[in-house]
Design brief:
This protein is an alpha/beta fold. The chain has one domain (8-215): TIM Barrel (Alpha-Beta Barrel), CATH 3.20.20.70. 33% of the residues lie in helices and 21% in strands. It contains seven helices and ten strands. Helix 1 runs parallel beside helix 7 (195-215) and helix 6 runs parallel beside helix 7. The longest helix has 21 residues, at 195-215.
C-alpha cells in the first residue's frame, strides 16, 4: 500500500524576519514573498532578500508575481534568491519559463473543465496552485471554492483560498494536495501574521495527515 505523503505548508505574504522565523520554527516548509505592489502583503526585493539571508537551509523561498514585466522579475531575482516563482496573473507558459527558475502557476478555479484545460497549457510548471475565482482579483481574497470540483491533474497540486485552522483538515481529507497555501487565514490583520494562528494551522495540518495515514493502514 502506498505511503501517504506529508502535506507541505506554504505561508504566504511574509513581510518581516520575526514572522518568517516563527513560521519556520512552527514547521512551515515554504515561505511566500508577495511582489505585487497592489497587495497589502507587498514586500520589496531588498527587504525579502534581507529575510531570506537569515533563514535556515531546507526552507523554500517563493516569489509571487502578478502580470509583472519580465524586467521587474529579473530585477528581484538579482537581489533576492528565490527557489520558485509563483505567477498569479495572465502569464502564459513562455513567459513563466523564461527566467530559468522553477515555477508554480496559479489558476483561479471556476470549474473542473476550465481548470483542467488551463493547467494543460503549463507543461513546464513544477506545480499548479488553485485559488478561488473572484472577478478582477488575482488572489488573496480569503474566499473558499468547491474542492469537490478539482480535476485530476498531472502536476503536484497546491490548494489556496480561504484556508484556516478550522477548514484545512477538510481539504486534506477530500483532496490530499501536495501542499496547502495560507495567507489571510493566519493573520491578525491584513499583512500581519499571527503566531497563534500559524501554530494552530500547522497543528491542524499535522493532525489531518495523521488521520489520513491511519485510514490508509
Amino acid at each position: 500500500m502506498a505511503k501517504v505523503q506529508r502535506t507541505r505548508v506554504k505561508i504566504c505574504g511574509i513581510r518581516s524576519l520575526p514572522e518568517a522565523s516563527t513560521a519556520v520554527h512552527l514547521g512551515a516548509d515554504i515561505l511566500g514573498f508577495n511582489f505585487f505592489d497592489q497587495s497589502a502583503r507587498f514586500i520589496s526585493g531588498e527587504n525579502a532578500a534581507e529575510i531570506v539571508a537569515e533563514l535556515p537551509p531546507f526552507v523554500s523561498h517563493v516569489g509571487l508575481f502578478v502580470n509583472a514585466s519580465s524586467e521587474f522579475v529579473r530585477s528581484v531575482l538579482k537581489i533576492c534568491p528565490l527557489d520558485l516563482l509563483q505567477f498569479h496573473g495572465d502569464e502564459d507558459e513562455n513567459y513563466c519559463r523564461q527566467f530559468d527558475v522553477p515555477y508554480v502557476k496559479a489558476i483561479r478555479h471556476q470549474n473542473s473543465e476550465t481548470t483542467a484545460r488551463i493547467a494543460a497549457e503549463y507543461g513546464m510548471a513544477s506545480a499548479i496552485l488553485l485559488d478561488a475565482y473572484v472577478p478582477s482579483q488575482y488572489g488573496g481574497t480569503g474566499e473558499q471554492f468547491d474542492w469537490a470540483t478539482i480535476p485530476a491533474l498531472e502536476k503536484p497540486l497546491m490548494v489556496a483560498g480561504g484556508l484556516n485552522a478550522e477548514n484545512v483538515h477538510s481539504v486534506i481529507e477530500s483532496v490530499g494536495p501536495f501542499a496547502v497555501d495560507v495567507c489571510g487565514g493566519v493573520e491578525s490583520a491584513p499583512g500581519v501574521k499571527s503566531s497563534e494562528k500559524m501554530d494552530a494551522f500547522l497543528r491542524a495540518v499535522g493532525e489531518a495527515d495523521r488521520l489520513r495515514a491511519a485510514c490508509h493502514k
